């Protein structure tokens, strides 16, 4: 069943195009990768989904609802939760406090927040020995896991993850990816923004490649894995539809 559907979504930052006419879908429990070079528009898609930027045109349907009129914090309540690039944890709070704080927004009583924290810690055993430590003292990988744990406090149906492998040691990258796979196996869909194409294809069922704010390629990850057009899109040497469309479409 389709959980998320973007239809011809366009976002501008003043005169600067973020994305133009992006359409994509995520099924329940599916891992979908959003790929592309720096500035291709990946984070803009996530920001539009989280409600941090307002689209100029196009529609976003999530669980059958039109998201445009739903405010950012209400989207989190609906299970649309983002793990931001750079983690954005609170370094001066403990691991436990970081998790508990994530539960505050829902107005749940303390006992319920506590049991959510316990659930997350059980699921993410690597955090357990660090519960009382300041989050800023954790390694980059541990902080990334904490950021994912914090997002899990909201009980997501769609987890949006921005560059989870950035700056992590290889074993940690592997661990984080196993974690994301486990999350998806238990029914949470994952929309993954990742610069590391190999990793992204490994974990995802389908992928979309963005170039200059437009989707230039999409399909099953297994098919795209060896497609030279993916590399071309990254290097900006693509001579396919994407370039043609980008240059032919007049900006508003
Ligand atoms: P990266 O991997 O570097 O984060 P990205 O694919 O996520 O890149 P976006 O950050 O979505 O790309 O950027 C898409 C376009 O929108 C780029 O041209 C970028 O310069 C522009 N852009 C993004 N954020 C802003 C902003 N706050 N103000 C102005 N332009 C912006």
Secondary-structure blueprint of this entry?
Elements: E1 2-13, E2 16-27, E3 31-35, H1 42-50, E4 57-62, E5 65-66, H2 72-77, E6 80-83, H3 95-104, H4 110-123, H5 140-152, E7 158-162, H6 170-185, E8 189-193, H7 197-203, E9 206-211, E10 214-220, H8 221-224, H9 228-235, H10 241-248
Parallel strand pairs: 3-8, 3-9, 6-7, 7-8
Antiparallel strand pairs: 1-2, 1-4, 4-5, 9-10
Descriptive report:
The protein is α/β, with parallel strands linked by helices. The chain has 2 domains: 2-79 and 156-247, Rossmann fold (3-Layer(aba) Sandwich), CATH 3.40.50.300; 86-148, no CATH class. It is 38% helix and 25% strand. The strands form 2 sheets. Strands 6-7-8-3-9-10 form a 6-stranded mixed β-sheet, with helices on both faces. A 4-stranded antiparallel β-sheet has the order 2-1-4-5, with helices on one face.
Descriptive tags:
252 residues; alpha/beta; Rossmann fold; 2 domains; six-stranded mixed β-sheet; 10 helices; binds adenosine-5'-triphosphate
